[in-house]
Amino acid sequence: MSIEVVDKNITNEFSNGEIVFRITALSIPSEELPERNERNVHIVTSLEDYKKKLDSHLYTPLLFTCNLPTRLAYLYGCLNYNYNQPRTDTYTFWWREMYTDNWDIWFKVNPYSDADVG
Q1: Which residues is 23 bridged to in the sheet?
Q2: pLDDT tens-digit profile of 56-114?
Q3: What is the DSSP track for the chain?
């Protein structure tokens, strides 16, 4: 999997409820969409929103063993849907402090091929 964490300190700040995040997706050019296309995927999300989503999700033990960026990427639909069929979008998780307007990159989920590590 290709999750590129830009700012490792943000995980603690999010866990303390000090920041919010949003997600954008950047499409890779293809025959259907010849130009790069960036769109909003999820609007501003708080710690409380995340906890509600996690609480309502079907319990999956492995979800609690991975780091927060991987867990968020999974919960918000940014990972592959089928084995070895990479998504065509790069998802960017942006963060900002509460009650501010300045967004910075927290981490990116790049298209990836699944690997069976045996």
Answers
A1: 42, 93
A2: 999 999 999 999 999 999 999 999 989 888 888 999 999 999 989 999 999 999 999 88
A3: -EEEES-TTHHHHHHTT-EEEEEEEEEPP-SS--S-EEEEEEEEE-HHHHHHHHHHSPP-GGGGTS-HHHHHHHHTT-S-SBTTB--SEEEEEEEEETT----EEEEEEE--------
Query: What are the phi and psi torsion angles at 91 (to 5°)?
Result: -100, 130
Whether the full predicted model's pTM is greater than 0.85, yes or no, is: yes
Q: Which of 55, 56, 60, 48 is nearest to 19 (CA)?
A: 48
**CB of 44 closer than 8 Å to CB of 103:** no
For the chain, which residues make up each domain, given as ranges? Answer: 2-110
> Residue holding tokens 């300045």?
102
